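Recap from last week: sequence in, structure out.
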Amino acid sequence: MPLDERKLLSGTLRETGAGGTRPSSAPQRDGSRASRVAPRLVPILIAAAAVLLLDALTPAGLTVSILQVLLVWMGTLWLPSRQLMLVAAVCAAFAVLGFHVSPAAGPATWVERSNLLICLGSIWLLTLTCLRQRAAEEARLKARRELAHSQETVRMLSGLLPICAWCRKIRNEEGAWEDLETYIHNHSRAEFTHGMCQECAARLGSELSGSP
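Predicted C-alpha cells:
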C-alpha cells in the first residue's frame, strides 16, 4: 500500500474510533439537557416524597394533599412538558397513597373522599391547562415564523397595472414608464431567462431564409 493511502487510512481510523463510527455530539447535547432539567425535576420529586411521608405520619388529610397541588403548580413554571406530566402523575399517585396510609380516627368520610377528588382534579387541571397554553403558544410562534418567512421570500403583485398597449411598458408608482421585465424584477423575486418560442423561431427562420 502506498504511503499516502496508509496515512489517509490511519487518519480515518482515528476519527471513527474502535467501533468504526464517528463520534457524535448528540449524547453530549442530551447529557447537557438532562443536567439542566435534573436540578429542577429532582427537588420537586424529593419534595413530593417528603409530602407523602408527612401525610403518612400525620392525620392532616387535605392540608398535606394541597402541598402536592402546589408542587405541580411549581412544575408548570419550571419544567418542560414531559417532566411536568411525570410530576403530575407522581403527585397524583402520592396523594392517593397518602389518603390510604394517613392515620385517621375512623373510616374515611365522603368529605375526605371529595377532598381527594378535588385534589386530583386540581392536579390534572393545572397540568392540562399548562400543556394547552404551551401548545397554543408554540402554534402562534410557528405561525409567526412562517409569516415572517413568507414576507421575506415572497413579494406579490396585486391590483391594476397600467401597461402601454403598444410598447408593453408599465407605469410605476413614481409615474415613470419601465420595461415589463424591469418592473416585475423590482416588485418581486422573479428572475428572467430568455429563450425563443417555436412561433418566433419559425418566423425568424422564414425571415432569414427570405433575406438576400
